[in-house]
Each structure stands twice: as structure tokens, then as C-alpha cells.
Amino acid sequence: MSLDKNRKPLILRGARQVGKTTIVEMFSKNFDQYIYLNLEKKEESELFDKNLNIHELMQAIFLNKNTVPSNGKILLFIDEIQNSQNAVAMIRYFYEEAKQLYIIAAGSLLETMIGKKQISFPVGRVQFLFMYPLTFNEFLIATEEKQALTFYNEIPFQNLAYSKLLKLFHQYTLVGGMPEIVANWIDKRDIVSLTPLFQGLLTSYLDDVSKYARNHTMRETIRHTIESTPLEAGKRIKFQGFGSSNYKSREISEALKTLEKAMLVYLLYPSTNILPPIINDKKKSPRLQFLDTGLINFLAGLQSGYFQIENLDSIFKGRILEHIIGQELLAIDPLRSQKISFWVREKKQSQAEIDFIIQYKDLLIPVEVKAGKEGKLKSLHLFMDKVEHKYAVRFYAGKLSKQAVKTNSGKEFMLLNLPYFLVGRIFHYLEWFIEE
């Protein structure tokens, strides 16, 4: 977030309890005056129901807050904006008629609630910013690991900090990135003390089901889907019978798409492209990504597996490692809602799958998450035989290295081996790797 004079009202998107209100309160320190409205409160929501023009509305807001407007910079934060159709409609007038104000709006159920009410934000008059759980970089900042952070941000990474960063990344993967959980971890360094907080998060999401669901049947389907997702996350899924249930494909599809709008889950569909842009094939089965890996560890009973481990690939058949890589990749660009993708070739005689593909400039770069030797990456070799470029990436538990590899058909390519804790720096490393 910035103080750009050409700014538009900012709409913060993100699941409940990822820290939207907290980050705005921190940002408000840059202003002379901060006004906070929570439209879950009836008296504050009703301010937008009086058919006032923008100037009268601001007077009513200041009166409600028993304050007078400052002559300096004023930040107005409208929280849970989805509760007022009129508030959403007024956003355009803040942009057109009150440019002296800085406006931020947020809501945990924006797409779901807006979809029900058939309302939308004014096109071209707002800017969206997507918030996710804390990244590893942010985890290092929060835990005040200043020296580790310095090494983390250095390109190329110095292997002397390898052991330290590997240990910290394992902590991050164990705890996850939900702000309240991380804060408690910093204070107590006790995983058991996090149990009531994890349980509270799950309860709050289950309590929200009534807001997501259109009827009782869908309410029960969504509850089942939330409770089953931690055991299904990180792998490709079928909607029919999801979570060992009798639910039909249509019911689970609606439930997952509803939770996706609430940003609790992400359906990552595969692509068969070898050239940009990445086009996802929604006729194929998706891979399921949950909001936060720490929540998966708690709900799936995996927390004890982290102690004394040397490689995340050993937990949950490698799905946790793949999931945390996906979580980091999703959060790289908060200005974009574009999902990450993976690559498949599905033929009767030959099946192949690449864990992730990312677009770097005009190239589609394959990304594997593997512990094995490079010669065993059969799908990667197949992909590299198809593309014209010669660059591939592997995330693993080893140290930073570059090596020349030859496919079975004889094509030579360069493989960038990155310790998996560097996933958040992938585009910086691609620039270093390819430009060199």
C-alpha cells in the first residue's frame, strides 16, 4: 500500500483472519486522521442507507464518530463492506468527488456475498489487493530473524546460511502463516499452545458456513468439505464422493467453488500448454490447495512429524512440501488474482505431470518439487523435450546449484536446484539464472 496521489479506492481481498484489519491499522500511522467503519454494526451500515451525497455522507460519518475532519491526510477504512450494497455503490463517488480522502475497503466474504446480491465494484474506479497468510519472508520479519532475512534476500544465496534457513522454513511450515498463530508462536514457542487458536480458526470458518450457503443441504455439504479438505489438500481430487462421502459431483463442485470465493481453498487446474499464456483446462481434475499449511498440519494431526526432520518431503508423502510451495507461489504477487498452475500430459500410453509451471517473460518454466536425483525426473525430461528453451527448476532439500542435464532423447538443458525455502524468491533466481 502506498500514498500515491493518483490512487484509487483500495479493496482488500482475503479470507477471514488473514490480518486485513491489522495491516490497515498499521498503515494508518502514516495519516493525520484514521476513521474506521465496521459495516457488521447496524448503526454504521445504516449511514449508507440515507441517500446522502458524498459530502453529506462524510459529515454523517464524522458525526457518528464524534470527531471533526482533519486538515491533513485522512484514511477511511470501510470493513465488511459486503454488508451494504449502498456502500459498494458509493465507492465510485469517493473516487470521483472526494479524491482528498484515502479509502480502503475490505470484506472476508466479498465475492460470495456480492454474487448473491448481484452487485459489483465500479470498473476502473477501484484497485484490488489480495492478502494471503504470511509468507516465509514475512515470517522471518515477524520472528526478528534479521541475519537470516539478510541471507534470504541475497542473490545468489550463500550456502553458509543453509542449515539456519532450512530449520526456520520447517518452523514456518509447521506453524503456518495465520497472523494470530504466528504471534502466539513468537511469544511461547510451544506448538501445543496453538491448539485452541487453530481450533478457533476452524470453528470460525464453520460458523461462517451459513453465510456461504444458499440452503440447509448446501450448508451441510460445505461443512463436510471444510472438514475433509485438510486430508485432501495437495493432491488432485474428484468431486464425486469427495472426502469419502456420498455427495454428488455437482454438490461438491458448488461447495468448493463457494469456499474458493471466500479464499479458503483454491482449485488449481492443470494446463497442457508449453507456450505462454498459461491456459488452464477445467475439464481435467484439479489439485486442491487449502488456505494455510499450518491449519492442515493441525487438522490432519501432522504436527509431531516435524520434530527432528531433515526433509519436508518425508511428511504426508511429500504433499505438505508441495502444498507450502504452492502457498508461497500464490502469494508472490498480491496485485493479481491469477492462480498458479501445473502441467499434465494424459495419454493412455504415457502419463506425465509437472508439479508447477510459471511464466517468466515469454517462457513457461517447469518447476518440480522432488527429493530424488535429476535423472529420475521423467516428466520434467518429457516437458523439456517439447519446449524450445533450456531452463528448468527443482525445489528440494539440498543446496543451491546449477547443473547441465541431458534428457533421454539427448536434449541438453540447465537445471536450477533451489533449496525449497527460496521459493518466494523464484523470479529473482530465474532472472539470475537465465540472464547469466
Care to give the gist of this entry?
This protein has 436 residues and is α/β, with parallel strands linked by helices. Helices cover 38% and strands 18% of the residues.
Number of helices: 17
Largest sheet: 7 strands, mixed
Shape: globular
N→C terminal distance: 33 Å
* Total strand segments: 14
Strand and helix map with partners:
Elements: E1 10-13, H1 20-27, E2 33-38, H2 42-45, H3 54-64, E3 74-79, H4 85-97, E4 101-107, H5 110-117, E5 127-130, H6 136-142, H7 146-152, H8 162-175, H9 179-188, H10 195-207, H11 209-212, H12 216-232, H13 249-261, E6 265-268, E7 270-271, E8 287-290, H14 293-299, H15 319-330, E9 341-346, E10 351-360, E11 363-369, H16 378-386, E12 391-396, E13 401-406, E14 412-419, H17 426-435
Parallel strand pairs: 1-4, 1-5, 2-3, 3-4, 7-9, 11-12, 12-14
Antiparallel strand pairs: 6-8, 9-10, 10-11, 13-14
Question: Which features characterize this protein?
Answer:
17 helices; single chain; 436 residues; seven-stranded mixed beta sheet; Rossmann fold; alpha/beta; five-stranded parallel beta sheet; 3 domains; globular
How does this model look, in words?
It is a single chain. It contains 17 helices and 14 strands. The chain is α/β, with parallel strands linked by helices and 436 residues long. The chain folds into 3 domains: 121 residues, Rossmann fold (3-Layer(aba) Sandwich), CATH 3.40.50.300; 198 residues, no CATH class; 94 residues, no CATH class. Strands 7-9-10-11-12-14-13 form a 7-stranded mixed beta sheet. A 5-stranded parallel beta sheet has the order 2-3-4-1-5, with helices on one face. It is globular, with a radius of gyration of 23 Å. 38% of the residues are buried.
